[in-house]
Amino acid sequence: MEWHLKATGYILVLLALLHAFFPKYFNWRKEFAPLTLLSRQIMYVHTFFIALVVLLMGIGCIYAAEDILHTRLGHLLSLGLFIFWICRLFFQFFVYAPSLWKGKRFETTMHIIFSCLWSYFSVVFFMIFKADINI
Predict the structure, then answer these.
(1) 14: how many CB neighbours lie within 10 A of its CB?
(2) Domain residues of the chain, as ranges?
(3) What is the pLDDT of residues 1-22, one digit of tens each?
(4) How many alpha carbons lie under 13 Å from residue 91 in its C-beta half-sphere?
């Protein structure tokens, strides 16, 4: 399980770093131009803090794997991370409109990749939590 936890950590660090490219890739300058200054800044600030939280999750998984795997606090943290990622997986299917990806090769590929990632993260964190409660 340690290998999976560390792999999750490295993927999360990469995912966090990818957030730096969102504004340019999604053309936020043009897309957000009609928004108020406050709304634009909220989008940038929220993106930064989402990236920061994902980065910290990843660093924790890499450098505190033993503690996460073998302590009660680590197992409770895993429960929280499981809830976070299972909610993200739910949003992938039930909040984002299918029209954003269906029939589009790149977007469908990304939808599948991220659905698999959110599933993988959910399973890893649930399995760590489950080890503590012996389901």
Answers:
(1) 12
(2) 1-69, 71-134
(3) 999 999 999 999 999 999 999 9
(4) 8
